[in-house]
Amino acid sequence: MKTKILKIDLNAPSNLTIKYASSVIQKGGLVAFPTETVYGLGANALDSKAVAKIFKVKRRPMDNPLIVHIAKFEELDKLVKIIPSKAKLLIKKFWPGPLTLVFLKKKDVPKEVTAGSKTIAIRMPANKFALELIRSAGVPIAAPSANLAGKPSSTTATHVMGDFNGKIDLIIDGGQTDIGVESTVLDLTENVPIILRPGAVTKEMLEKVIGKVRTLNKNKNGNVKSPGLKYKHYAPEAEMILITGDMNEIVNKTKSLIDFYKKQNKKIGIMTSVETKKSYNAEHTILSVGSRKDLKIVARNLFLTLREFDRLGVEVILAECFPETKIGYAIQNRLKKAASRIY
To answer: I need a labelling partner for 49 at 20 to 30 A (CA). Which of 172, 254, 273, 339 fits?
Structure first.
């Protein structure tokens, strides 16, 4: 298969490009496209065969559900049994945006989308091209992150090309995504809503709108309601060690590990903040994800940096932790899931 790659201006995407991409979706093909969070790998959510292609090319376990993207509020009625009052409040506040809501699904939704679960995860992306694509296609689009299962999510079209060139129909190049980590997933089927996956819409932001919200303490077995709960995610090719503690502890622990791996002749990558970057010897591959004072930039650069370490061929990554405040909670969630071990 030859993959077509089309570059777009996100502020003014071409109608011809939108129509072409939507025709690929309508014909049962796969389109990788930018959203405000990460790139998605999309197919017609109502076409079981098209959805099955997503699992095949991603090498994704079939019991790992997908998120469905919509462009009109009216589409919810076709997909979910009931829209709780809390959902209506959240939709009014956060849609379009990086918030996925979990509902009880209608029986017509293909089981492939929900991994056999009775629930369905839905969001309305804020990215202009993504919204126009869904509207033009005339169907909801199932779209997990556009990366091979287990690898860091794609935040540029170059990442997508590396994983899927020659395997999918179309890649839309809209540049680097804004947020850099996947959407928050909130389960509304419980009495007290549960954050299944943290993202840019934080617990504090949600509670200002609907009151008490819980966080998921541990992963579940069997059917799950959201991606990211059951399998290792976001991991680079290299062994990755997450370094914890305050900044002094992080620097001291990292230097100790550098000495250890240097004796083994390992090619070392160090993922730092701006504040600690100068603490290490330039003979190693040192990449900063941003300042600890601006965690939004850190989130935007997180997967980009992990992918860059892979490109540079490092064998071990020493990655510092970040404060678990606001979007920092999502950053730490991704780092912990990507890490081989935590030190």
So the answer is: 172
Tens-digit pLDDT profile for the chain (343 aa)? 899 999 999 989 999 999 999 999 999 999 999 999 999 999 999 999 999 999 999 999 988 999 999 999 999 999 999 999 999 999 999 999 999 999 999 998 999 999 999 999 999 999 999 999 999 999 999 999 999 999 999 999 999 999 999 999 999 999 999 999 999 999 999 999 999 999 999 999 999 999 999 998 765 445 566 555 555 678 999 999 999 999 999 999 999 999 999 999 999 999 999 999 999 988 899 999 999 999 999 999 999 999 999 999 999 999 999 999 999 999 999 999 999 999 9
- The DSSP H or E segment spanning 51 is helix 48-58
Strand partners, 242: 319, 342
Other CB atoms within a 10 A radius of the CB of residue 178 amount to 19
- Write down the domain spans for the chain: 4-215, 239-342
Structure tokens at 161: 């090309």
* Cα distance between residue 102 and residue 297, in whole Å: 28
Distance from chain centroid for Cα 208: 24
CATH code matching the domain that covers 4-215, chosen among 3.40.50.11190, 3.40.50.2300, 3.90.870.10, 3.40.47.10: 3.90.870.10
